[in-house]
Amino acid sequence: MNVRIADAVDTLLELPIAPSFTRIGYEVRSLLERWKPLASYDLRGRVMLLTGATSGLGLAAAEALAHAGATLILLGRDAAKTEQVRADLARRTGNDRLSTLIADMGDLDAVRRAAGEVVASHAALHVLAHNAGALHATRRAAPDGTEETVASHVLGPFLLTGLLMARLRASAPARVLTMSSGGMYATGLTVERLEMGDDDYSGTEQYARAKRAQVTLNEMWAARFAASGVVFHALHPGWALTPGVETSLPTFRRIVGPLLRTPEQGADTLVWLAADDGEPLATNGCFWLDRRIRALHRLPTTRRTDTAEQRAALWRWCMERTGLDPAAVEP
Ligand SMILES: NC(=O)c1ccc[n+]([C@@H]2O[C@H](COP(=O)([O-])OP(=O)(O)OC[C@H]3O[C@@H](n4cnc5c(N)ncnc54)[C@H](OP(=O)(O)O)[C@@H]3O)[C@@H](O)[C@H]2O)c1
What we know:
binds NADP nicotinamide-adenine-dinucleotide phosphate; 2 domains; alpha/beta; 14 helices; Rossmann fold
């Protein structure tokens, strides 16, 4: 297909959210743009850490990466479930370079332990993929008291990235990937109101604030480490039918129904960003959907909130709350 026609169709799809985010967006783009099949990548020798590998998009991504031969560290929060996933994937793909790593991403002590285990067990790390995430109907607190969505989407990944940065740099070219959500388009950047309280708690709003913080931090890591050989990308998967969506968004699941993507379709861009040595390595700090760079803002109201001051405050807040050694994030 002519590239200009594919561009025009992509733009038309992207304007209204629904067709772009559903399986229609995936199916039209993958066909028109003749995407390289994920099954054709050879990832032997690449060491990758994937969080949230036990369900939904993470499980689909793990299967594709294992199939391509990657040395894969599957991070899960439940030891028995994660080991079961490892054993199943090893049997299905024939890949014997799969290991497990146990941590709740909202538990900063567990994240510190997990980072130490990775450094001790793997001499190289080429990809760190933050995919773990959940939307909670009611407010929960992480072990350090931080609201759980913020702890597991923002602080845990920030800390893990910081603690593994030296290993990633030493393994360059390397990539850090963050699975955000299109839900963040509705919400601006906030630091003072990043954690919602008991009185005003809304699971979807809390989730959107955390996802907005994730994409902002992605750009900030990329700018800070621009010359390091490590690239940072955030993405969103569109709308995919996963156990997470079934549990957290039953009404949405009913309405969008058969138009939801499969987990494999939702995970495609994550796997592609981890595997492809073209655009994903040649670009940095971008936000993706369906193998294309997308805008961080769709609304003037959210764009106005995204100021240099808010960004600096967010970085400072993450440093303080995680207790990360500033030397770990020295460019
Ligand atoms: N599906 C969609 O349409 C959609 C849309 C936008 C964004 N996303 C994002 O895509 C990612 C994957 O979601 P999904 O739809 O595949 O959901 P899912 O089926 O519920 O899978 C979520 C994964 O994250 C893990 N996880 C959740 N909280 C964790 C924590 N605190 N520590 C460690 N692991 C944790 C889960 O572990 P357990 O197996 O132990 O529960 C599971 O492996 C999330 O970041 C989500 O926000 C999904």
